[in-house]
Amino acid sequence: EAAVTQSPRNKVAVTGGKVTLSCNQTNNHNNMYWYRQDTGHGLRLIHYSYGAGSTEKGDIPDGYKASRPSQENFSLILELATPSQTSVYFCASGDAPGHLNSDYTFGSGTRLLVI
Amino acid sequence: GDSVTQTEGQVTVSESKSLIINCTYSTTSIAYPNLFWYVRYPGEGLQLLLKVITAGQKGSSRGFEATYNKETTSFHLQKASVQESDSAVYYCALGGSSSSFSKLVFGQGTSLSVVP
After folding, report:
1. Nearest to B21 by CA among B34, B33, B8
2. pLDDT digits 0-9 by tens, A6-18
3. Which of A22, A24, A101, B113: CA 20 to 30 A from A10?
């Protein structure tokens, strides 16, 4: 079954430390996304990718980097974690194969606490 | 740009009463907008509740309905009789192809509490 898998499910990090959130998809979608979800803000797009080797800035990229080494994998990297990055992070894959019908699948989320 | 607006941040409804959560959208880059409602139950991930890809059509799932209205650029979520198990956060989203990229834009979310 096609799916998006995120790891870890939960993470506690110290301020100033490096954090890597991983995402794997088996949907064969070209596009992948990282969102963060905070109360009152909905889901906000951090980075996205068109395909292997590409990463693009979303609406709130500051403090984050992304890496797409393959079609299946898309990582979100916090080089110097700060408490303001405490949030729930969702990875998704998506495509619009016919340009009329869009298809998106979300992972279960990673809950990150930066102390 | 592209945006989605949900006017209610928090809604409390008594069990068996009706519900409407408002959603309006705006897009300048998506040629064929698709509209979605996602739901996040406490402690769980994001789930697709319903999706409509054609203006004028209605989507339905688990007793919820939403009609894609291109004239008013709206996609309100309705349910005739809510249950406690419907308590969750609901997100309206706009998706579709913008040139060669498929994008998905979310509203702020509406937290629904259903009380006995």
Report:
1. B8
2. 999 999 999 999 9
3. B113
Q: Taking all residues of chain B, what is their mean pLDDT, rounded to a whole number?
A: 92
What are residue B110's phi and psi, to 5 degrees?
A: -125, 120
The answer to whether the CB of A85 falls within 8 A of the CB of A13 is no
Dihedral sign for Cα A39, A77, B43, B63, please.
positive
C-beta pairs of B43-47 under 8 Å, 24+ apart in sequence: B44/A108, B45/A90, B45/A106, B45/A107, B45/A108, B45/A109, B46/A37, B46/A43, B46/A90, B46/A106, B46/A109, B46/B91, B47/A106
Q: How confident is the model at residue A72 (pLDDT cuts 50, 70, 90)?
A: very high
Residue A97 confidence (pLDDT) above 60: no
Contact between chains at A100 and B53 (C-beta distance less than 8 A) = yes
User: Is some CB atom of chain A closer than 8 A to the CB atom of B45?
Assistant: yes
Contact A96 B109 (CB under 8 A): no
Hey, are the CB atoms on A99 and B106 less than 8 Å from each other? no
- Residues from chain B contacting residue A41 (CB–CB below 8 Å): 108-109
A54: CB partners within 8 A, 6+ apart: A68
Inter-CA distances, A92 with A23, A34, A74, A97, B45, Å: 8, 7, 9, 16, 11
Model pLDDT, residue B45: 80
Å between A107 CA and nearest CA of chain B: 7
The single residue listed with the structure tokens 């688990």 is: B62
